Amino acid sequence: MVRVVWVFASILLAAQAASANCPPAGWSKDKLLALKAATFQIADVPTRERFAEAVVACLASPDPELRDGIAFEALSHMLRQEQLGTEVRLRIARDLLRRLQGADGAGFERPFAALVLAEIVRADRIKAYLPGAMREAIAADALSYVRGVKDYRGFDEREGWRHGVAHGADLLMQMARNPNFAAPDLAAKIRDAAGAQVAPPGHFYIYGEPDRLMQPIVVLAQRKAFDAAAWSAWFADLAKPAPLATWGEAYRSQAGLARLHNLRAFLTSVLVTARLSENTDDDVLLAGAEAALREL
């Protein structure tokens, strides 16, 4: 009982600490909502950049309007509109990496740090600005984060989204699309990090995670990261029934059914997307994905 109370108190203190910095100083929730209605337009550059750095704290907010509707949308808009200087973007990136690595009892901060880091990486693809060391740090932490996700909560009508796997997959996808992220073996590490979350033990995906995990795979194929034989070998390994002896045994346990359900959803998403894509480079996925799907 004491342990339960201690854990609850720790989570509450973390949420209170996040709330203490959100809304940022000088801003109320009503003022932030008005800023959103005005498409986050802040004419004065120093004021805009100070706001962008401060609103990162709202990514940890338990209030979905502040976390998703204000913090993420504001940062995404300002990055996509190239409204932030390089030094500010680098400071935000360092802050996001710190949050991605930190404790996250309420389950909001790390997924949303990953989602905004995806925007940081996207901006670097449009116009390179990240130093090599920063790209290496983002890649290392992104891979570690995705592989380590154990919180599979998705949407809650009161609390909004967490969606750690999907947000992590978005970050992997942006890394896969960005030619500046070209470290040796990175493509294989991105592929395998996505693969590590395709069928987490005992959990049924219900919030579109297989479709999000599919995206970095298709992007890697379109960038010709691996040939058809390598993809087929990867899909074949992914579709092995182990620790079950055969896929027929999957129907005897919830864990087996979850693995079968998630693999089938992922492989179907890969197959349909590659077949419908106008980019023929991702056709290298077809034979392997189809063969793996037939194994199930």
Structure report:
With 296 residues, the protein is mainly alpha-helical. It has 2 domains: 197 residues; 98 residues, no CATH class. It is 64% helix and 1% strand. It has 13 helices and 2 strands. Strands 1-2 form a two-stranded antiparallel sheet. Helix 2 packs across helix 4, helix 3 packs parallel to helix 5 and helix 6 runs parallel beside helix 8. It is globular. The chain starts with a helix and ends with a helix.
Report mean pLDDT, rounded to a whole number.
94
* Residue windows where pLDDT falls under 50 for at least 5 positions: 1-18
| Total strand segments | 2
User: What percent of the residues sit in helical stretches (DSSP H or I)?
Assistant: 55-70%
Q: Main sheet, how many strands, which sense, barrel?
A: 2 strands, antiparallel
Strand order of the largest sheet: 1-2
How far apart are the termini?
Answer: 44 Å
- Share of residues in strands: under 5%
Specify the structural class: mainly alpha
Question: How many helices in DSSP terms?
Answer: 13
Total domains: 2
> What is the H/E order?
HHHHHHHEEHHHHHH
- Describe the global form: globular
- Radius of gyration, in Å, reads 20 Å
